[in-house]
Amino acid sequence: MKTHPESPAETAKQPGNFWKQPMEATTTGHTIRSTAVTPPASPGLPPMEQARQLLQKLISFQSVSGREAPLVHYLDQWALDQGFETDCFETDEAALPAHPCTRAKHIPLAGRPSLVIRLGGNGTGRSLLFNAHSDVVDAPKPETWRHGPWAGELENSRLFGRGACDTKGPLVSALLAMCELKSAYPGGLPGDVLLEIIPGEEDCVGL
After folding, report:
1. If you average pLDDT over residues 122-132, what whole number do you get?
2. For residue 183, what are the domain limits?
3. N or C: which end of the chain has fewer CB within 10 A?
4. Residue 105 contacts residue 201 (beta carbons within 8 Å)
5. What backbone torsions phi and psi does residue 199 show, to the nearest 5 degrees?
6. Distance in angstroms (rounded) separating the CA atoms of residues 139 and 145
7. Distance of alpha carbon 13 from its chain centroid, rounded?
8. Is residue 24 part of a domain?
9. Secondary structure of the chain: what % helix, strand, coil (to 5)?
10. How many CB atoms lie within 10 A of CB 100?
């Protein structure tokens, strides 16, 4: 990823200053944003109904590998609306060869943002990081599906769609868990709780 040590956003991410930039700081590759605390997007709904609605919305995005950006930008705004901080950035392709775990086979990363959503703690304890990927395997023959791959249809308390299990369902679980923690601990947990959402999990393994 492109970073500049002298930039405000990078300074905010140094040890002891992680995510201390209060509002928006835009640098090459990084946009750290925060917003005033706002009520949940679906106030008054039971948690399971909130989960269903959000998962159906995420399934409707055809976020096949290489086309993740609309989904990621939706999640960025959704997280801001809940009062979380976000860091949305694209990885610098030129920096990858130096990384020991880089796979040679992948779709170019330009236009494929990563997103980190943060529930800030009070700095007295350890942090927890959830992970999910934004891309899904393609569904080239949707007519062969009993339920449309992008419809998010509910049948017998089961929700069907591409990515419902891998991995938009777990992503929704993590987001709503963070919302519950935010509500239960208004003063903040000892450490941060974060969710990173990355592109390219499916295409890097050849699916």
Report:
1. 97
2. 29-36+50-205
3. C
4. no
5. -90, 165
6. 9
7. 19
8. no
9. 30, 20, 50
10. 4
